[in-house]
Specification:
By secondary structure, the protein is α/β, with parallel strands linked by helices. It has 2 domains: 153 residues, Rossmann fold, CATH 3.40.50.720; 190 residues, NAD(P)-binding Rossmann-like Domain (Rossmann fold, 3-Layer(aba) Sandwich), CATH 3.40.50. It has 14 helices and 14 strands. The strands form 2 sheets. A 7-stranded mixed beta sheet has the order 2-1-3-4-5-13-14. A 7-stranded parallel beta sheet has the order 8-7-6-9-10-11-12, with helices on both faces. The protein is globular, with a radius of gyration of 21 Å. The relative contact order is 0.15. The N terminus and C terminus are likely disordered. The protein binds 1,4-dihydronicotinamide adenine dinucleotide. The site of 1,4-dihydronicotinamide adenine dinucleotide (NAI) has 34 residues, from helix 6 and helix 9.
Length: 378
């Protein structure tokens, strides 16, 4: 078990950067990841004498985030409205000892800088992996079956079956591959198997245990270009780190089958913004779908909002919400409380939740030496 810092004083300052839920959060208390509902931990912290600062204001030197981080002991952030904890901010965060990601994915924190200051970073592993896996399957289907243009046609009052059927296919008989076969990637494979794909492939520096591989009938491909060139559909399910930033770029896109579909619910910056836009517009990709953006909130003019393939479809982009269903929010709010409670009591953390601790990586998933399998980008 991993032993996390024992705190001797009881009063701590906890800073949470969450998104504003507005009237939706007032009407729906299960929207726990909002500034209004405060992960359901405000009263608990107050009753225990701790200070709890909650805000959505995260950009610029005068933001609540950048000012309050200077005195906070604990930072809670979510990947949905990420407070980007840069090396510079970590340097200024004199009291910071623990960062909790309410959800999964801690790439918005400079993990190397956190290690230098021996700050613990923990996330609620597994809390929303089913939520994302379901979204991935939906995104694959909506691209392959050309769903969005078909629905838009109906809303417009039109009815021209051939216009949408000309680019609609079955998932059955296709080759689907996941980059990353961890908690989410594996669940995607499990859910795809009943669709009778031609083959399921995965690209991951960590091979699956033989029985897990057999259970989903998946084949590991160790070379990225070889992997990409075999897939009709590629789904990205690895963390964003130094080895995966820009992994899907102008060069790697050349290895895709012409007209393949790409789904990315992992992190926006794994895919190059312009390269993906150009690939969809040229028809090299038949479509791109997902919920993650290279900066969040995505600017109004972000090209992924409006890209279309030459037949006018191929865009399944939505805001970052696949991992924040109401079911997921209950799990990550509970998990956040558990991590914080254990830390306040000086108890051990669940090792599955610890990303960095005592100046080192506790998980291989984010380790900076984890370059693509062949060690270089193609
Ligand atoms: P995990 O740690 O269980 O699995 C990640 C897998 O990626 C591991 O098997 C690891 O070996 C593999 N991997 C790492 N670097 C790689 C590389 N360079 N090439 C190939 N494989 C590599 O993580 P989990 O729970 O499956 O989550 C994956 C990611 O999904 C998270 O890090 C996060 O960025 C994203 N996510 C997105 C959510 C959303 O709402 N859209 C919600 C939850 C997670």
């Amino acid at each position: 078990m991993v032993k996390v810092c024992t705190l001797l004083v009881s009063l701590v300052v906890v800073l949470a950067i969450l998104y504003d839920g507005g009237s939706a959060a007032e009407q729906e208390p299960r929207l726990l990841g909002t500034t209004e509902n405060k992960l359901g931990i405000a009263n608990w912290l107050k009753e225990n004498g701790h200070e709890f600062i909650v805000s959505s204001d995260k950009e610029g030197p005068n933001s609540v985030f950048q000012k309050e981080i200077e005195t906070a002991d604990v930072l809670i952030t979510t990947p949905f409205h990420p407070g980007y904890l840069t090396a510079d901010l970590i340097e200024r965060a004199k009291n910071l000892k623990l960062c909790i990601t309410a959800g999964v994915g801690s790439d918005h924190i400079d993990l190397n800088a956190a290690n230098k200051k021996k700050i613990t970073v923990a996330e609620v592993s597994g809390s929303n992996v089913v939520s994302v896996a379901e979204h991935v399957v939906m995104s694959i289907l909506l691209l392959v079956r050309n769903f969005v243009p078909a629905h838009e046609m109906i809303e417009r009052g039109d009815w021209q079956v051939s216009q949408v059927a000309r680019n609609a296919f079955d998932l059955e008989g296709k080759v689907v591959g996941t980059i990353g076969a961890g908690r989410i990637g594996y669940r995607v494979l499990q859910r795809l198997l009943p669709f009778d794909p031609k083959e399921l492939l995965y690209y991951d520096y960590a091979p699956l245990p033989a029985n897990a591989e057999q259970a989903v009938k998946a084949r590991r491909v160790e070379d990225l270009a070889e992997f990409l060139s075999q897939c009709d559909v590629v789904t990205v399910n690895c963390p964003l780190h130094e080895g995966t930033r820009g992994l899907i770029n102008k060069e790697t896109l050349k290895h895709f089958k012409k007209g393949a579909w790409l789904v990315n619910t992992a992190r926006g910056a794994i895919c190059d913004r312009i390269a993906v836009k150009e690939a969809v517009e040229s028809g090299q990709l038949n479509g791109y779908s997902g919920d993650v953006w290279d900066v969040q909130p995505a600017p109004r003019d972000h090209p992924w909002r409006t890209i279309k393939n030459p037949l006018g479809g191929g865009n399944g982009m939505v805001p970052h919400y696949s991992g924040t269903t109401l079911d997921a929010q209950a799990r990550y709010a509970n998990g956040t409380k558990d991590i914080l409670d254990r830390w306040l009591k000086g108890e051990e953390q669940n090792p599955a939740n610890v990303i960095v601790i005592n100046g080192d990586y506790a998980t291989k998933a984010y380790h900076p030496t984890n370059l693509p399998l062949d060690g270089q980008r193609k």
